[in-house]
């Protein structure tokens, strides 16, 4: 069984479970994303929600990227990590007043507006500060991302964005508001998208939207396609970097850019997923009547994705190479959903063996919880271990 390369000797001295980040791979991924985006002068804003670990954020900000934030806490984390406020975009259907005020105080690049109601409040808060807020309309483009239902965002029934049919109405309202300035249009159709046709459809839909806006006399300076590029959870050792080349090429090829327009993306998962692994220890092997369970000391408190989205994470026994056996790999949490995988092939597992749950660098550590009064996992980095 081909496995990732891990410093197992060092791991044996660290209390489990913990997150381990391969800094070289993160940098390789960032280099690739940046090179491919630079080919077309596309702008990248890292989606902080995927992984807000301060060290990870500061490595990413070192690449000159902007940040995509969905809360005041994320704006603050991005600023602390060195992302310039002028490259911060702020999205989210429920921005609280203090979060909007934080964005206004720092003169962030753009508020991605999700409703007419929110637009009015941002105008009001900006007026109180004597400022003009730059805004983009987050449009719900009705493009199916063909991904898991819980991470689909661009359909009519989703809570996100302004419905296509209501854009005209919001533009009319905008005309009456003095302290907001329309600079762009934005959308995000979903996450873990591996089928490029969804992005093709999105680019084509944006051409249609731009044509309609133009008819209403509106041309914006910025177009933002959100995030969504998927990674290969099945082959992290063979395909460690996502298809940034194909992804950006789709937009370059299909999008009709107006003169002077700038194109933005908000990649999250594609930047951080593959560089992170959750390292956990086997506590017990339990022989059931029909199943053999490998019970780990990590559960959905450390990695929620399998329980929440039925997500697959490759698992490797990094402590030995005994012949492969089949296990249901589970955690210690008192919930039936605390299962990392059923009928998983692992090199024969023994108490004390270390199991690496791969591709956990995005939506892993950041979604950890303290349920069952457990402690949050610590993080270690390949270059400082
Ligand atoms: N921009 C916006 C407005 C978003 O809502 C998201 C993700 C992104 C960018 C980044 O998308 P990415 O490049 O990471 O696909 N917890 C789930 C994923 C939730 C994604 C939410 N929005 C998971 O573990 O699969």
The level-1 CATH class of the largest domain: Alpha Beta
Number of separate domains: 2
Structural category is: alpha/beta
The second-level CATH architecture of the largest domain is Alpha-Beta Barrel
Which molecules are bound in this entry? Answer: ligand LLP
The biggest beta sheet is recorded as: 8 strands, mixed
Strand percent estimate: 15-25%
Q: What layout of secondary structure does this protein have?
A:
Layout: H1 8-11, E1 18-21, H2 23-38, E2 43-47, H3 54-61, E3 66-69, H4 72-80, E4 88-90, H5 97-105, E5 110-113, H6 116-129, E6 133-140, E7 162-163, H7 167-175, E8 180-186, H8 196-215, E9 222-224, H9 244-254, E10 262-265, H10 269-272, E11 276-287, E12 292-296, H11 305-309, E13 315-317, E14 324-330, E15 339-347, E16 354-357, E17 378-381
Parallel strand pairs: 1-17, 2-3, 2-10, 3-4, 4-5, 5-6, 6-7, 6-8, 8-9, 9-10, 12-14
Antiparallel strand pairs: 1-11, 11-12, 11-16, 13-16, 14-15
The structure holds ligand LLP.
What does this protein look like?
The chain is an alpha/beta fold and 385 residues long. It has two domains: 8-18 and 274-381, Lyase, Ornithine Decarboxylase, Chain A, domain 1 (Beta Barrel), CATH 2.40.37.10; 23-273, Alanine racemase (TIM Barrel, Alpha-Beta Barrel). The protein is 28% helix and 23% strand. It contains eleven helices and 17 strands. The chain has helices spanning 8-11, 23-38, 54-61, 72-80, 97-105, 116-129, 167-175, 196-215, 244-254, 269-272, 305-309, and strands spanning 18-21, 43-47, 66-69, 88-90, 110-113, 133-140, 162-163, 180-186, 222-224, 262-265, 276-287, 292-296, 315-317, 324-330, 339-347, 354-357, 378-381. Strands 1, 11, 12, 13, 14, 15, 16 and 17 form an eight-stranded mixed β-sheet that branches. Helix 4 (72-80) runs parallel beside helix 5 (97-105), helix 5 (97-105) packs across helix 6 and helix 8 packs parallel to helix 9 (244-254). The two termini are 26 Å apart. The mean pLDDT is 96. Ligand LLP binds at residues 47, 49-50, 68, 91, 151, 188, 191-192, 226-229, 266-270, 305, 309, 363.
């Amino acid at each position: 069984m081909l496995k990732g390369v891990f410093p197992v000797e060092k791991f044996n001295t660290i209390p489990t479970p913990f997150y381990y980040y391969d800094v070289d791979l993160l940098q390789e991924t960032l280099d690739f994303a940046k090179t491919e985006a630079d080919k077309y002068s596309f702008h990248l804003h890292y989606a902080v929600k995927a992984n807000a670990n301060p060290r990870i954020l500061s490595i990413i900000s070192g690449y000159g990227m902007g940040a995509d934030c969905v809360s005041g806490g994320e704006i603050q984390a991005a600023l602390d990590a060195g992302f310039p406020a002028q490259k911060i975009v702020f999205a989210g259907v429920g921005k609280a007043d203090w979060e909007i005020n934080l964005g206004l105080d720092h003169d962030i690049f753009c508020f991605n507006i999700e409703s007419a109601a929110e637009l009015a409040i941002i105008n009001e808060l900006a007026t109180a500060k004597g400022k003009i807020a730059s805004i983009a309309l987050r449009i719900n483009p009705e493009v199916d991302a063909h991904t898991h239902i819980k991470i689909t965002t661009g359909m009519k029934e989703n809570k996100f964005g302004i419905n296509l049919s209501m854009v005209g109405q919001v533009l009319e309202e905008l005309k009456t508001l003095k302290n907001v300035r329309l600079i762009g249009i934005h959308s995000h159709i979903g996450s873990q998208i591996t089928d490029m046709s969804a992005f093709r459809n999105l680019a084509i839909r944006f051409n249609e939207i731009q044509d309609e806006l133009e008819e209403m006399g509106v041309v914006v300076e910025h177009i933002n396609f959100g995030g969504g590029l998927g990674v290969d959870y099945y082959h992290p050792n063979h395909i460690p970097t996502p298809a940034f080349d194909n992804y950006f090429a789709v937009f370059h090829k299909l999008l009709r850019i107006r003169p002077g327009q700038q194109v933005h993306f908000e990649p999250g998962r594609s930047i951080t997923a593959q560089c992170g692994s959750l390292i956990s220890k086997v506590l017990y092997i339990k022989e059931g009547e029909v199943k053999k369970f490998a019970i780990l000391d990590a559960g959905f408190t450390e990695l929620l994705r399998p329980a929440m989205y039925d997500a697959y994470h490759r698992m490797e026994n990094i402590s030995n190479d005994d012949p492969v056996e089949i296990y249901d790999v589970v955690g210690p949490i008192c919930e039936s959903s605390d299962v990392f995988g059923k009928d998983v092939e692992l090199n024969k597992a023994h108490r004390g063996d270390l199991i690496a749950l791969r591709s956990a660098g995005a939506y892993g550590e950041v979604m950890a919880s303290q349920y069952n009064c457990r402690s949050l996992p610590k993080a270690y980095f390949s270059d400082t271990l």
